[in-house]
Every structure is written in C-alpha cells, then in structure tokens.
Amino acid sequence: MTNPTKELLFVALGGSGEIGMNVNLYGCDGKWLMVDCGVTFSNGEYPGVDVMLPDLTFIEERLDDLVGIFLTHGHEDHIGALPYFAAELGVPLYASPFTAGLIREKLDEEGISNQVKLHIVHPAKPMKVGPFAVTYVPLAHSIPEGNALLIDTPHGRIFHTGDWKIDQAPLLGTPSTAAELTAIGDKGVFALVCDSTNVFNPEASGSEADVRKGLNEVIGSARHRVLVTTFASNAARLSTLGAVARDTGRTLCVAGRSLDRILKVARAVGYLKDFPPTVDFEAAMRMPRDKVLIVATGGQGEARAALSRISEGSHPIKLDRGDTVVFSSKQIPGNEVAIGAIQNRLAANGVEMITDRQAFVHVSGHPGRPELQQMYRWMRPELVLPVHGEMRHLAEHARFALANGVPGAVLQKDGDIIRLAPGTPQKIGEAPVGRLALDGDVILPADGATINERRRLALYGQISVAVAIRRDGALIGEPEVRLQGVPVEEDREPFIDEAIDAAEAAVKGQVAKGRIKDRDALREAIRLGVRRVATRWTGKKPVVDVLLIEA
C-alpha cells in the first residue's frame, strides 16, 4: 500500500499505545494530512537522552502527497517535534494564534523560521487543503486555545478532539458551547477520534476555577517560603497562581525558561494581562520567607529543570527546612522514579511537600468518563477511534464507547493502517514506527548502535587496553589497561595486573600459532583474554577496546 485511493485511512505514528509523542495521519484520495507532531520524555532505557522523537519514515516517503500539518494545541507532546522535522517535511503548518506563537519561538531557536510556512487559523473558518476541509473547534484544556479539528472528507466527517475536558468556568479562552457542539453532531459525524487519557476516571476532571480555592488554602496556611511546580504550558494554572499570590499577599518569582516563554507568548496574544509583577531570584531570596511564592518547572522530574537543581542546591533559589513545595500537576506514567528522587532530596532537607493526593491542588486537562459520555451525546458518531493513551486506555475507551451506545469502535495502535471507509473499518497494513533519540543536538535511532553501545557501557563498564608490538610480534614494554565502571573497587590494582598478564599471553599465543600478521585476530585474542579476566572477577562482560601500536 503506497497511497490512499478512493478511501479514508487513519495511521498513528505516535500517541496510540503510549502517553505522548502524538502524530496522526489521515489519508484520503491520494493525499495525507498530519495532525500534531510531538515528543515524549525519555527514561532509563536511553542513557543521556532527555527527549524522544517519533520516527516519521512512513510519511517522509510520501512527502509529495502531504498537504499540511494541523496542530491542535501547544503542549510539547503535540508540537515539540516540529523544530526537528518541519523544514524537512516542507509543508505548511496550521495553528491558532497562541499555539503559533509557541511554534514560532521554537522555529526561531532552531534558526528555521524562514524555511517554514506557519499559518494562523481561527475557529469556524474552514480551510480547504487537498481533499480535506478542516475547521478548528475550541475545547477547554489546560493550555489556551485547545482545539478539536472537524475534518470533512468525501467519505465522512471526522471530529478529532485533541486534548480536551469540559470546564464550566474556564480561566483562559472560550470553548465551544453545548449548543455549538450539538449542532456539529446534528450534521453527522462519522468518526470521533478521541482522547483516552482519563478513561478510567469515574469523575469529571473538574474546573480550573476550583483549584484556586485549594491552592489558597495550602499556600495561605504555609508558614514559610512556598514553591509551586506545574507544567509550564499550563497557562491557566499560571493565571490561577497569579491570583493566589494576590490572595495570600505573596510576591511571585518565576523559575524556568519555558515558563518565561509561555508568559511572553501568552501576553503577546492577549492572555495573562493581569498577571502580577515578578521578582528575580536574588530579590526573592532577600524577601521574608512568608512573602514569596515561587513558580518553577520540573514537576515531572526533568534533570535540568529548575526544581531538580533547586533540590540539589545548585540553583540560585534555595529552600530551607519548613519551606513547602506544592506539586500542582499529575505524574506522567514513567516519571515516577525521577519525581521520587527529587522528593526524597527535598524531604532530606526538611522541605514539606503537598501533592494532589493530600490537597485539591490540581485538575486534569483530560476527560473523565462523564465527559466522554457527554461528548458521545453531542457528536453521536458512527464509531469511536480511541487515541492518546496506553493500550489499556485505548481498549477501555473502546469498550466504554460501545457500552454507551456508540455503534462501533476501532482499537488501533501506532503503525496500524486503518481503512475507515468505505466498508467496515479494518486494519489493512502496517507502517514503520519507532522512536528517535534527541541526544544533545543529534537525532539518532533509539535502538541504534550508539544508544545500544551506551547501554552496554552503563550496564557493564569499559576497559581500554593499549599494546605495543614489533613487526615480529615481540612486546614493547608492558600493556596499559584503564578501567571505567568495572566493579573491582579496592581490588583494582591486582585486577589490572591480571588483565595485563592476559593481554601479554594473548600476544604470545598468536606468535606461537604463527598468526601474528593477522592484526584483527590479534586484537580479538587480546579483547577476549582481558574480558575473560573481567568475567571471572566480576561476573560481567565489560566492553573491551584494544589499541594496537606497531613500531
């Protein structure tokens, strides 16, 4: 299968079977449309890597038929990969004003703004691209200008929700009304492609306005310095914290480049106009401890973010015994260990911590079961296609939709090529999918040679052996052996002595066999001899590198 013919296809290259890295493709009448292009957090499987990117090989092989990329909102798991792919993909980007502002900042940082067409779109104005007509439909979320996409095709209408919730009292933006959403359903919706993140939550996600009361209680009762960590992109939470600072008589200090960027873009497009003035780190540390409120990035355990550095004592902001850190966010699955490490460091320093388990300091930006039911009633789709979740979320969402009267549901995962129409929806093929590691400034295959070598180094350690020989194989001096990460500790010197003996024996053995001219075989004999010593001493098989010097 190369390109869609007279049919409607759906392919997720990320975000289906995982949380984050959302990339969705719609194929119709020979053309493709992409929705979102995000990143996800790395984990311990990828040493030294902070961010993972989607593998877009499938659509890169079809660039002539890609008509555009539509961005639902400005979270990193929906726009974060654009700086690395937008110029190469070479198609226009479409986004609302706030989201476009965030994207522009990213493109500027990469120096590719002049290579990428970025179109600002507004709700209720359909855009015709190829066989698709796309209309932005505002929905509430934890960031300004969350949008669903109403995608008209010759084979039926798609309502792609993006990330959303129902919020009766949103702080930023104006989501579509129940009447407006009902009107969309009245005209007929073939497929509802829907956020599944909170499908196991029996309660509605709640309103951002309600969080203000909970934060006021927690921060108002704190005796000393308070730090609140939240997602930088949660501009609604920033607005809440600005109000809480005024309510509790505290002065705001903002710690984190991403927070500065969000504030800048939000103000530029008309949001957060009443956000109170902030002070710098030095001024914050001079203020009475009960008069300052710090907002910091890093609540998901990111090693380079402000909170991690504060917990290590390597940041200008310092926390003392009796200070309070409020985690005004939900743990993303997979980040528990990193978050726990930060919390343990804070606890060791006598810092008190409040999470959403102890107080009402966070509401989700994703729909619980009552909200999903309401969306079904508004849209009345012929089928639901769950996205944005791990497989357990997607499977439960499919069951839940069918149990609530939706006629059909399609369970898919990253890489499945689903023909939605005509006929019965079914999987017709598989697209290559995977992850790429953003390692410094270099993009690498997540399971390629470099990352695999790094895993081996992390797991087993490394030994370097330098051996000098004459042409006849006679040793010149004694081999040099250096170790990194090999668990010999106080036995290091006797271990090195034995490794040297093994290297010398390997050279003499090759000479005795008359194979000294085969330098590759000599290197391998030395490598294996030294590794056998390491295995005997440690039970591990470290990476052994051999440098052969000929005189």
Topology of this protein?
Layout: E1 8-14, E2 16-17, E3 23-28, E4 31-35, E5 40-41, E6 51-54, H1 57-60, E7 66-70, H2 76-79, H3 82-89, E8 93-95, H4 97-110, E9 118-120, E10 127-129, E11 132-138, E12 147-153, E13 156-160, H5 178-186, E14 191-195, H6 208-221, E15 226-229, H7 235-248, E16 251-255, H8 257-268, H9 281-286, E17 292-296, H10 306-312, E18 324-327, H11 336-348, E19 352-354, H12 369-379, E20 383-387, E21 389-390, H13 391-403, E22 408-409, E23 416-421, E24 426-430, E25 435-439, E26 442-445, H14 449-460, E27 462-469, E28 480-484, H15 492-512, H16 519-538, E29 543-550
Parallel strand pairs: 2-21, 4-7, 7-8, 8-9, 13-14, 14-20, 15-17, 15-18, 16-17, 18-19, 20-22, 27-29
Antiparallel strand pairs: 1-3, 1-23, 3-4, 5-6, 6-25, 10-11, 11-12, 12-13, 23-24, 25-26, 27-28
Helix pairs in contact: 4-8, 5-12, 6-7, 10-11, 15-16
Description:
Helix 11 links the parallel strand 18 and strand 19 (352-354). Helix content is 33%, strand content 25%. It is an alpha/beta fold and 551 residues long. The mean pLDDT is 93. It contains 16 helices and 29 strands. The chain has an eight-stranded mixed beta sheet with strand order 9-8-7-4-3-1-23-24. Helix 4 (97-110) crosses helix 8.
